[in-house]
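Researcher: Go.
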Amino acid sequence: MDKNLYKRIERYMIECMTDSAHDKEHVYRVLYVALDMAKYEECVDNDILITASLLHDIGRKEQFLDPRVCHALAGSQKAYDFLVSIGFAEEKAQHIKDCISTHRYRANDPPESIEAKILFDADKIDATGTLGIARTIFYVGQISEPLYTVDSDGNILDGCNDKEPSFFHEYKFKLENIYDKFYTKRANQIARERQKSAVAFYNSMLREVDDSYKNGLLLLKEHLK
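Model: Structure:
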């Protein structure tokens, strides 16, 4: 890819990124991991992959302003319009649009091309390990959701059957189940290397919070008349 073209696309990406949990550094990590994965695959169009990686989250602002909006779909259209406006061939712009529209973690619109599968995997890798946990906690705080919820008896809910959103709920719903959802062998390898640290973090946090509540409630009862 021509360096000047890369810089132009990069500048547009930076202009669009306003979400702290999905900032430009997230985009760079996705790009760099995607390029790593591409080395292990055949017939990858790296220009398509680089462009799609740079622009994959430019629809986040639209989703943040209106949760009914899918950032993948909004971003894919924004990317297509931008790329056509700077001279991309319609076929390439459409390919990039398809990569972006299918990068989100959902079952009804899976990625098809190798570039789309690599982008999907690279984006999901950023939700693995302690990095994925840190980003999730950051985002949970940004939208004013709690780390965990408590039932009427003061028991800490671990996220498995919670009805209210929280970090623990997101961990059990998404982060814990992401490790068998990859398309490429390289992504599976990276994910398995990171999985142990994520499991250890969750278990440690749950134990620490649970111990605080169990011991604290008993002590509090001793002081209340």
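Model: The chain has a mean pLDDT of 93.
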